[in-house]
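Table S2 (continued). Query chain:
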Amino acid sequence: MTIAAEPPIALALSGGGIRAMAFHLGVLKRMAERGLLERVARLSTVSGGSLLVGLVYRSCDFQWPTSQQFLNKTYPWVGEQLCSRSLQAGAVLQLLRPWNWRFCLSRANLLALELRANWELDVPLSAIGLSPEWSINGTTAENGKRFRFKGAEIGDWELGYAQAPNFPLGSALAVSAAFPIGFGPLALRADAYIWKKRAWDAPKGSEQVVNVGTKRLHLYDGGLYDNLGAEPFFDPGKQQPKNAGDYIIVSDAGAPLPIGLRSGPLNPFRIKRMMDIMSEQSRSLRIRAFANYLQTNPGIGAQLLIGTAISGPDCTEAKFARSFPTSLKRLSRTDFERLAGYGHGVARDAENRFGLA
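Corresponding output:
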């Protein structure tokens, strides 16, 4: 079930809150059982996927674990965190401190404080091991582009990039999970950094200092731009990988669009429904593009989708997982075992359909 050349793996972990964290953890467990974590050369994460990888790094002193370390230490430790503490409640409790009241309308800052203070993610980006190469994805509100934290560098292709080795990991993760209604954007002091940019086809080293045009940038959840997190690896327009030779694995735990519309012409949830429909169309197009790439180029990637029936057409675990709420609340042990176990099962199913590296 492996391919002969054993190419490097580019792994994308989608958003989807606590549901995605548990689902992806099960996927990683299956990869670890196959001894594949050592081959992960590139990571791209969004929202829940970003939060999970932050905890994975935390479990091993901010180095990417070996497959054996993951099975022996990371999997049980991260599972315990997800079942014993609530990120959502912890962020709200940060408001008990009067000096945090200023963040009442910018609650992503509260999530950042919770991640840094109580989840022990208060290290700078420079503390993360350089291998695999990790892109933590957000969305720039000012221009709608993908804002990413990658190594010690932050920025997007339109604004330019800046060196920020001391930027807190917890704050980068909060940006990636800053869903508009639940948390809102995290404000970044753009004037605290030197931004550089080069022409589209210009060589590296030709960057020039630029003015981003604003003192503050407002950074939202990466899922607003690309909830799959696949863009750093795959060009949907050209139908080809951005790094030749990569075996791309996309683990998608995003919630499918539910059927139904809340009644009442003045119901505020109708606005959210319109946002969800637009997001679903963007997600569907990216999924179809990657699926077509896999169909026309067998053996070069795998797509793991929540909702995949792994035990017959009426798979109860698939129905449970796809309908599980998108939140950052604490999981019960039973719900964790079901979600992680289902992710593990979907990864096993992918072995039969794609090979799974």
